[in-house]
Design goal:
Elements (H helix, E strand, L loop, with lengths): L1 H5 L48 E3 L2 E3 L14 E4 L10 H8 L3 E4 H6 L1 H4 L3 E7 L7 H5 L6 E5 L8 H6 L3 E3 L2 H20 L22 E5 L3 H12 L3 E5 L6 H7 L1 E3 L3 H7 L2 E4 L13 H6 L5 E4 L8 H9 L5 E4 L19 E3 L8 H19 L12
Parallel strand pairs: 3-4, 3-5, 5-6, 6-7, 8-9, 8-11, 9-10, 11-12, 12-13, 13-14
Antiparallel strand pairs: 1-2
């Protein structure tokens, strides 16, 4: 099969956890051991102290005051799951972290719990690890901040963490460009049918054009707006639905039109792209009713969280051609079981949550997380704090 030849490199993925070689329909080339998640490399001058000079993450300047260089033994301790391997923090990120912190792996912490528990003031969460539960929080009396590398925090119990007086931060600036790129990549791949099983290319092997099509963006935060900027270059008509309307000048800059009702967006769009955070309000935001409102020629794209879509309803909509196609970078669960009906369909593309899986994005996420941690430890304003609702 053409797809089998073209994507043979993707058969072995470390990111599939305990279920190797899952039959995902992928468009990404050979991947490194991390997942989930064409700018010039940023030269950031980090200092070995609580306080660091200005850094840049995700295209903005993050200001943390400077101070004298501290000796290695004086660096604040940060807890991580591990270094390297299939689940640990990447080696190049470890180098960044070590400039500001003494790194304590979970293995080291558990081995010397009595000694380490009072020294750890920060936890660096990379690829949702380590797991933050009540037992861990109770064992870290001086913990001040949990810095999540990534924007989604649905794996963290914010209210429970807050009850311990601990701050939570994320990295919304660092992920915007790479995730927006992924949204456009999925849109183009689905529109032109780049990933499908076939024995031969018939004369009716036709896709649809993205140029001058109508794009509906649900969730116009930093990532959604970055998608709109890219879509403008394709001369797309851009509709968006968001909790809060953007400023008029921001709308005009990308030619976006606000839809107060999501139903209006669904009915008009050729491509519907989901860029919302997962919350009780957005869980199964797109279900049978919403899919039924979409055009039969429309494509649904999800680069947010898998649980935002009712997957059973999506299977039915794709099988019955209620919508043309779907392209998902996220599913629920991740990875999907081998026998999941979504994996048997030909009008869907599924990638293994790799929206931020670029060299640049992973580094910028670490930089932004470091800046957040240092700000908390220094009692400075926190650039990207996540406050429980």
């Amino acid at each position: 099969m053409f797809r089998g030849r073209a994507f043979g490199l993707l058969k072995s993925l470390h990111l599939m956890g305990s279920q190797p070689n899952l039959p995902h329909k992928l468009i990404h080339p050979a991947l490194t051991s991390h997942v989930h998640h064409c700018q010039k490399r940023r030269n950031v001058d980090y200092r070995q102290s609580y306080n660091t000079g200005p850094t840049s993450a995700g295209g903005r300047t993050l200001n943390v005051p400077q101070n004298k260089v501290m000796a290695e033994q004086e660096l604040p301790a940060v807890l991580i799951l591990d270094i390297g391997g299939t689940q640990g923090v990447l080696e190049n990120l470890v180098v960044l972290l070590k400039k500001h912190f003494r790194l304590v792996t979970m293995k080291e912490f558990l081995k010397n719990k009595k000694e380490m528990s009072k020294k750890i003031q920060s936890v660096f969460v990379f690829e949702c690890r380590p797991t933050i539960d009540r037992e861990l929080l109770e064992s870290l009396p001086n913990l001040k901040v949990i810095a999540n590398s990534g924007v989604g925090v649905d794996h963290l119990d914010l209210k429970m963490i807050s009850s311990f007086g601990v701050k939570v931060t994320n990295t919304p600036q660092a992920v915007a460009d790479s995730t927006a790129d992924m949204g456009m990549a999925l849109m183009l791949a689905s529109a032109r049918r780049l990933v499908e099983d076939t024995e031969h290319f018939a004369v009716d092997w036709l896709g649809v054009e993205v140029t001058r099509a109508t794009l509906g963006i649900i969730g116009m935060g930093s990532i959604g707006y970055k998608v709109a900027q890219r879509a403008k270059a394709f001369e797309m008509k851009i509709l968006y639905h968001n909790r809060n309307r953007r400023k008029m000048e921001e709308e005009q800059a990308v030619g976006a039109h606000y839809c107060e009702k999501m139903d209006d967006l669904l009915q008009q769009s050729d491509f519907v792209l989901l860029v919302v955070s997962l919350s009780p309000e957005t869980r199964k935001l797109i279900g049978k009713r919403e899919l039924g409102l979409m055009k039969p020629t429309a494509t649904l794209i999800n680069i947010s969280r898998g649980a935002v879509i009712d997957q059973d309803a999506l299977v039915e909509a794709l099988q019955k051609k209620i919508i043309r196609a779907a392209a998902l970078d996220v599913t629920y669960p991740e990875p999907l079981p081998r026998d999941h009906p979504l994996l048997k369909l030909n009008n869907i593309i599924i990638t293994p949550h790799i929206g931020t899986a670029t060299v640049q994005a992973i580094r910028m996420m670490a930089e932004e997380a470091i800046t957040n941690m240092l700000a908390v430890l220094n009692g400075q304003p926190i650039p990207s704090e996540v406050v429980p609702k």
